[in-house]
Specification:
heterodimer; A: about 250 residues; 10 helices; B: about 180 residues; mainly alpha; Arp2/3 complex 21 kDa subunit ARPC3; two-stranded antiparallel ribbon; about 75% helix; about 0% strand
Chain lengths: ~250, ~180
């Protein structure tokens, strides 16, 4: 399910070398555009996403294979929206229990979710957890009374646990199936046999991480020195902001 | 940093990660879908206590705010936090604190944990429903009908699961601590 998706993927592409703070700003700008409901914005964001995927030199085929879980998830979401949104039936297929409005709403919702997911996959694939942590510390440093170093660490750990838990869900489900556990019709027993091993493994992993941090002498009072963002790292960000502003002007100007 | 404090930092991050996973297990009905995130929010409160419970839920919101797809159905971004379902998200933070606070006061007794889970769940609606009403300009009765009533049965089941899980997981953690 999530072997590559939402994990860091080592590489030396342009995106990998781009400063994490600029990547973070870029992600914030893009997620801002995803509030829009116009299809033209979705097309623009999709083209940009495809471009970024190529720039990241990500193993696209492998990723597509592993995104099956999300494809199923988005399809279920699409079905629900199409079936339960009130509206007019389709003229060409009146026997289909879906509405025109439902199909449109379901399609747009799935498109938007796919884009959010795609950008998150690209961002996590080309940004080391340590770089993300440092970028967050840099962003939060000016805010008074915030333990920026701890927040940075916790965010990078949360993302790690999020992707690891998704992996564990798949592993435990496969182990459950191998023992014919999926033949059990009782949903509570099924849930128990899935949830408890996942929670247990997650806690054990959390313990390992705790000891690893303690063994490396994790401290919050050490000074952190982050270099200034080189001007050529800022250029793509300005270019992106310019493109977004131009597109916004064309749409609403 | 002492190992105990470091452990709480890691466990709070783990619970925030689980809240994000819970958001992918949902039933999309109406404007507010049934998600398992609140199950892990309550579990964070019971499991970590009020201080680290609120930290965990706040962290979950923060990770979503920076654009990661951790909210229900893989959504993320600041716009979602300040959207129609934002009240439920802020309710999660208060819920984790309240559930943890009650659970700490009654020293993890069964009756008290059930009370903590019930009050925690109601807190989510206490913030979520008025916020939903304000955003969608619905009447109170309609906001309650779409934003609370359909989820009560699911929440009752989730509350039972939370209490069972909290009581099953606590010994695992205790065993870990004694094996140290």
């Amino acid at each position: 399910m999530a072997r590559i998706a939402l994990h860091y993927f080592p590489g030396n592409s342009l995106l990998h070398r781009w400063d994490a703070r600029c990547k973070f700003f870029g992600l914030l700008m893009i997620t801002g555009t995803l509030i829009q409901t116009r299809i033209s914005w979705f097309i623009f964001d999709s083209i940009l996403l495809v471009g970024l995927f190529f720039l990241s030199r990500f193993p696209f085929k492998q990723l597509l294979r592993e995104l099956r879980f999300w494809t199923i998830f988005l399809f279920i979401l699409f079905l629900f929206q199409s079936l339960f949104t009130p509206g007019l039936r389709l003229h060409s297929f009146p026997w289909l229990p879906v509405s025109k409005e439902g199909l449109l709403l379901g399609g747009l919702t799935c498109w938007r979710l796919g884009l959010i997911l795609g950008y998150a996959v690209v961002f996590t694939a080309v940004t080391r957890p340590r770089e993300l942590r440092d970028a967050l510390i840099w962003f939060l440093k000016p805010v008074p009374f915030l333990p920026e170093r701890r927040i940075g660490l916790m965010v990078s750990l949360t993302l790690r646990f999020f992707s690891r838990t998704l992996d564990q869900v798949e592993e435990v489900s496969l182990a459950h199936q191998a023992r014919l556990g999926d033949q059990n019709k009782n949903p509570i027993r099924k849930a128990k046999f899935l949830a408890l091993p996942i929670l247990r493994r997650s806690i054990l992993e959390a313990e390992e991480v705790t000891f690893a941090l303690a063994a490396r002498g994790y401290r919050e009072d050490l000074p952190i020195h982050l270099s200034q963002i080189p001007i050529y790292h800022l250029m793509p960000l300005f270019l992106m902001a310019g493109l977004l502003l131009m597109f916004w002007w064309i749409q609403y100007g | 940093m002492p190992v105990e404090k470091l452990r709480m930092v890691v466990l709070a991050s783990l619970m925030a990660g689980l809240m994000a996973v819970g958001a992918y297990i949902h039933v999309p009905i109406g404007p507010v879908p049934i998600v398992l995130t609140n199950l892990f929010v309550l579990l964070a409160g019971l499991f970590l206590g009020s201080r680290w419970g609120i930290a965990s839920a706040g962290l979950y919101l923060f990770v979503g705010a920076i654009g990661m797809p951790v909210f229900y159905g893989g959504k993320g971004g600041l716009a979602h936090i300040f959207g129609p379902t934002g009240g439920y998200l802020f309710g999660f933070v208060l819920c984790a604190w309240i559930a943890g606070f009650i659970s700490e006061r009654i020293r993890h007794r069964l009756g008290g944990e059930i009370l903590a889970v019930i009050i925690g769940s109601l807190i989510i609606y206490g913030l979520g429903v008025p916020w939903l009403k304000m955003f969608t300009k619905m009447s109170w009765s309609k906001a309650l009908m779409v934003g609370m009533i359909p989820f009560l049965i699911g929440d009752a089941i989730k509350a039972c699961v939370v209490v069972v899980l909290a009581r099953s997981v606590r010994p695992i953690l205790k065993r870990q601590l004694t094996n140290e």
